[in-house]
Amino acid sequence: MYDDSGLVSVLVASPGTPSALAGIQKGDVIQSIDGKSIADIGGLIKFREFMKGEVGTTYKLDLLREGKLLAVSLTLKDLFE
Predict the structure, then answer these.
(1) pTM score
(2) Residue 1: pLDDT above 70?
(3) What CATH number should be reported for the domain holding residue 27?
């Protein structure tokens, strides 16, 4: 979910998905990806485009969870394997 602050809030991290495997949880607020602010890349649609890549591509995400900043690595995988 994208809000007026320019950030993306996680609504769900389904088991077995790259986000869940990276430790991302419902309610996390994604601040940046590979050092680029979510607001600076243009919001949710641009975020989705930015996250498209080849299987095995790894991204560094900075998250805000319960007031604490966390860094996680998310590696894309084929969800149909």
Answers:
(1) 0.78
(2) no
(3) 2.30.42.10
